[in-house]
Amino acid sequence: MRGDFLYQVLYRKWRPQTFDDVSGQEHITTTLKNEVAANRINHAYLFTGSRGTGKTTCAKILSKAVNCLNPRSGNPCCECEICKGIDDGSILDVIEMDAASNRSIDDIRSIIDEAQYKPSRCKYRVFIIDEVHMLTPEAFNALLKTLEEPPEHVIFILATTEIHKILPTIVSRCQRFDFHRIKPSDIKDRLMYVAQQENVKLSESAAMMIATVADGAMRDALSLMDRCIAISTDVDDNVARTAAGLVQQSYLYDFAACIINKNTSKALEIIDNLYSESKDMARLCNELISHFRSLMMIKSVKKPREIIVMSDDEFEEAQTQADYLSIADIIYYMDVLSKAYLRMGHGTGDRVELETALVKLTAPELEATTEALTARIAALEKAVKQGIKISAEPALQTTAVAQADEKPVTTVNTDENPPQVQSEASPEELPKAPVTKPAPQVKHTQQKSTVNLEEIYQNAKPFPRWVEVVENMKPVSRAIAAAFSGSTAYVSGNYLLIDTSNNMAFELLKNGSRREEIRKIIQETTGHTYSLGPYKKPEKKQEKTDPIQTLKQELEESGIEITEE
Q1: How far is Cα 276 from Cα 271, in angstroms, rounded to an integer?
Q2: How many CB atoms lie within 10 A of CB 58?
Q3: CA separation for the pair 210, 228 (Å, rounded)
Q4: Measured between alpha carbons, how far is 417 from 437 in angstroms, rounded to an integer?
Q5: pLDDT class for 32, splitting at 50, 70, 90?
Q6: Count of other CB atoms within 10 angstroms of residue 132
Q7: Burial (CB count within 10 angstroms: exposed 0-12, middle 13-18, buried 19+), residue 257
Q8: pLDDT tens, position by position, 397-407
């Protein structure tokens, strides 16, 4: 309370007063303005659409516009005694009724009786019936005749969020307007305007975040902004996340990375941390679904940047994750999370449902559904296309890092078009894993060099400045820094060998432009230029023995003479 006045919430204080103030519904406001300007007023209107899109607001503006003493191009002037009287409720010719609490046939009969009387001060008597789908069937039937042939001085405006519950006979008697969900960009612009008028500092990224959470509802966006202002008048991303109860966006990328790399332990640790911070598990599950939906749009749409609402850094990181996944993978992930979301609140706790879903996603061998098998087959097909050798051993199925050959020396072709090799690093980098198919014949056979892989791995030593290198990746690209987070590196001569369980890191190394970015960061940090590749721990070779010679030696030691014929 300030003085004698109560605080007025933003969505009421900044409710549009003219059709021009309404955001995101130009297809409706333009038509209504033209009808008012041309004096082609219908006797019944039906406004339908999701919550917070402007149905009741447009109904009130229309009630003022048809009765305004000085209309301006179809808009009410908001200055004459009629406009002011309708706004403050002193004019009784505009009647607003909530059908959710006045839904009986008696309530409708009282409206029909009042409709017979001419307006006292206005040109038209306007009846605004909100949530009209809540009327009983008897009330609907009572309204039918009056709605079809009302007195000349009466206008009905019906508003509903559930058009399918309205009788077809009612719909056919009205001029219908479908309100769309308001675009996030339009909501953001309105929020920035309101913040400026309220002397509130609001960042564009925070406004876009609020607009995204509002899901097309301007009223919800203004209510959320009210909560943000209650926390701080300097509204940034952190304030908006706190007010909306959202997790940091980085957690979503961490979850996705755990699913991609099949890291069950890390995924459960993240859930435990978020649960201890009182994060809502159902909301988190829904955000994960939205994250994978963004990845799906990146994989499927030609211009996903125009559809997906996120910062440039977040989009870059999402694009990196999407490049590693197939559509079958993403659809399967969304299906498992959606089923877990539907089960939340019914029986087991929300946390248990989310944990179970993530265990299924990080350990696909536990899921035997058709969708799971399809996703696993798609992953195998992708591995085959990339030249990765598929082994029956489970350990080899879950890693894309190539294993070195038993032979200590391999021949590397340095021709203009090098053969494809089984390695997560680029074919232009060394050391290389063995060729998975016979190398193609080339003309310049004299341009060959040999690299001893075993010697390089044996001489590899820990690279102490790798943590500094990864830290320096963050200002350049969050996606690259996230991919190499937690990794280690070894140096052997001019070779920098990277050891990580995150397969996305090796996907980045295979990308020419990304590899050059990483090489440049390493050069700027250390002053040296290295060839990049995966690290493989040296294996101790076991001497091969001939079983026949072993048997022969054992027989001779037992006194049995062996003769060769």
Answers
A1: 9
A2: 24
A3: 9
A4: 15
A5: very high
A6: 30
A7: buried
A8: 333 333 333 33
Nearest alpha-carbon partner for 537 in 472, 503, 492? 492
What is the C-alpha separation between 506 and 502, in angstroms, rounded?
8
Helices then strands (H, E): number in the chain? 25, 13
Q: What angle do CA 439, 450, 429 make, to 5 degrees?
A: 75
Q: What is the pLDDT of residues 166-214, one digit of tens each?
A: 989 899 989 999 999 898 888 999 999 999 999 999 988 889 888 888 8
CA distances from 265 to 11, 258, 471, 485 (A): 45, 9, 24, 16
Among positive and negative, which fits the CA dihedral 315, 317, 320, 322?
A: negative
**How far is residue 214 from each of residues 183, 340, 407, measured CA to CA in Å?**
10, 23, 61
Beta bridge partners of 154: 125
In contact, 295 and 318? CB cutoff 8 Å: yes
What the block records as the tokens of 402 is 């190539």
Write out the two tokens for 543: 């001497």
pTM of the model: 0.59
Judge contact between 332 and 370, C-beta under 8 A. Answer: no
